[in-house]
UniProtKB/TrEMBL annotation:
GO terms for biological process: autophagy; protein transport. Residues 49-215 form the MRH domain. It is found in: Cytoplasmic vesicle membrane; Golgi apparatus membrane; Mitochondrion membrane; Preautophagosomal structure membrane. Residues 1-41 form the signal peptide. Residues 214-226 have a biased composition (Low complexity). One of its GO terms (cellular component) is Golgi membrane. This is Autophagy-related protein 27. Belongs to the ATG27 family.
């Protein structure tokens, strides 16, 4: 009689190489996460704000917005039966908007306003002002002084100014002006996108302008220790972009780095777990293998569902011009211009 004995399967062991790899991936992920807050755009208060010297502390760049011909006026006319509604946007980042002595004070934004929204109702050739919203305003020193928050990274692609406003309809107003670098923009180019959220009292402007480009900025002169030979008086302008070159990675670079390392750590530790617990090999080492095998079909179904949702709601587009968001149902139309 032959005894058939089965030799016990050797217990899988984690090799030194796998241990080192797993620890290295985890350490790199932790280190990257610790440095992630530095990748976010920096915010600083400019007090007082001077439009001819907007300084970004992170890159030491200074931008001059005073070359724009203020005040800028933008207007949009929309049919809102039985009337027409005209929305006018007045902007002056450098000084308070001028007060028209021929117009009653109640029919214009108060003194000290830098960005004003005027909404007028037109019917039978009669124009009635319904709203005058001071979304950027200050009463300090007659409105000549205003504190502005600047949000930026290195100043290469532009920056965002957040200006406080007055209280209108029991809501504190504010304006968010996103200045985007566009070297081909006209000197007096207007904002290309204007949206106003009346529930939050917030105006958001996207403003492509050449005055937000690094080529139009100035940087502090180099120290004398950098040498003064061979350049004459042009040494100060030889490398205007050097401060930004050492500014480090941007937010999306760090995000890509973290996602990549997280995925590698997930794969490495998952493969180790499958090998150590079940003695898996080959494709069986892949963690959650069934999910990855089905993921193309899951993605296809999700994309199909999203497309049907978008296509089904495409008939309810918003009106052009200055969009008025806010609480409550309904989209554009007359309701968007009712008193806030």
């Amino acid at each position: 009689m032959v005894n058939h004995t089965t030799a016990p399967r050797p217990t899988p062991r984690l090799t030194a190489t796998a241990t080192t790899l797993a620890l290295a991936l985890v350490a790199a992920l932790v280190a990257a996460a610790a440095q992630l807050p530095t990748a976010h755009a920096a915010k600083h208060i400019l007090s007082p704000f001077a439009c001819d010297s907007v300084t970004l502390p992170a890159s030491k760049r200074t931008f001059d917005l005073s070359s724009i011909h203020y005040p800028l006026t933008w207007s949009n006319l929309e049919r809102t039966p039985p009337t027409e509604t005209r929305t006018t946007l007045l902007i002056d980042l450098c000084n308070p908007l001028p007060i028209d002595p021929a117009t009653p004070q109640r029919d214009q934004c108060p003194p000290g306003t830098r960005i004003c929204i005027l909404i007028e109702s037109i019917k039978d050739d009669k124009t009635t002002l319904t709203q005058a919203i001071p979304v950027a305003w200050s009463d300090v020193d007659g409105g000549k002084r205003i504190d502005v928050e600047v949000d930026h990274d290195d100043g290469e692609r532009g920056f965002t100014l957040e200006l406080p406003g007055a209280t209108y309809a029991d809501r504190a107003q504010k304006a968010e002006v996103e200045l985007i670098c566009d070297p081909r923009a006209d000197q007096n180019a207007h904002p290309t996108s204007q949206t106003y959220d009346r529930a939050k009292g917030k105006l958001h402007l996207k403003w492509p302008t050449k005055f937000a480009c690094s080529s139009s900025s100035s940087t502090p002169p180099k120290s004398p220790s950098s040498g003064d030979g061979g350049g004459g008086g042009k040494g100060d302008d030889s490398n205007p972009a050097e401060p930004a070159a050492s500014a480090g990675w941007g937010f999306f670079s760090w995000l890509f780095f973290l996602v990549s390392f997280g995925f590698l750590a997930y794969m490495a530790l998952g493969a180790y777990n499958n090998y150590n617990q079940y003695g898996a090999s080959g494709w069986d080492l892949v963690p959650h293998r069934d999910f990855w095998r089905e993921s193309p079909y899951i993605a296809r179904d999700a994309a199909s569902h999203m497309w049907r949702s978008i296509a089904g709601g495409s008939g309810s587009g918003s009106a052009g011009g200055l969009g008025f968001g806010g609480g409550g149902g309904g989209g554009g139309g007359r309701g968007a211009y009712e008193p806030l």
